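Q: What does the predicted 3D structure of DUF2145 domain-containing protein look like?
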Amino acid sequence: MIRLARALVATLLLGIGIVQAGQNCEEKPITLDAASKAFSLASKLRDRLEASNDEVVILGRIGRDMSRYGLRYSHAGYAWRDHPKGRWLVRHALNRCGTAESDIYDEGLANFFMDDPLYYEVLVLRLKPELQSRLALALKQPLRLHEPRYNLVAYPFSSQYQNSNQWLLETLASAEMPGDPGSPLGREQAQRWLRQNGYLPSTLYIPTLTRLGGRITRANIAFDDHPFGRRMAGQIDVATVESIAAYIDKQGELIKQEVLTLP
């Protein structure tokens, strides 16, 4: 309950503090143009969601340029209907700037696009109804699989750290596993399920000097959770939006994949 209260307080402080998900990590007011674009894309997304019978979908956004790694989307979150009011909220993990910690946040759809995205575009992953229902139950306990020690390049099969996409992926695994989605579950169990069911992370090539520079200058970057041999070869495996989408499709749980952009 203490951690949940901390996460809710963090949500209220979004207008004061800064969280890491967009291009920049600096305190500056949002421009009128950026706010207008965020609300326009959110409105388009809401119309699409309201036209469906979906209860939970996965959203991907382009917070930063990942093209050097052959990736487009940098961050994922769950959008779900806030029953009984029926509002759409985004629940996701975010790193507070300048720190090595994260919290779970509930935000409106427009807020999801307000922290300086590279492009105003959203990927929508629509899931099979049974998985949606199980995710809705799992999302009622968002801190169950949350690890506040944040690492931007966390290794997906280690519980030492966690990044935003890894929290979403492990929550997805908890909904896929047999039994009650709300029952006690450890991160190691979720990771074991993912490995056994063929989840494949994305591999980023990050050379030694780049790794050393990132580790020294950034509080939220560490490589010591990665297997030694692959780390020395510059092969850094991470949970990405694309790898999550590929896994869901491989499991036969993906109904449709859509991309919404501003005109």
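A (community wiki): The structure tokens above were generated from the sequence. The chain is about 35% helix and 20% strand. The chain has one domain: 2-261.
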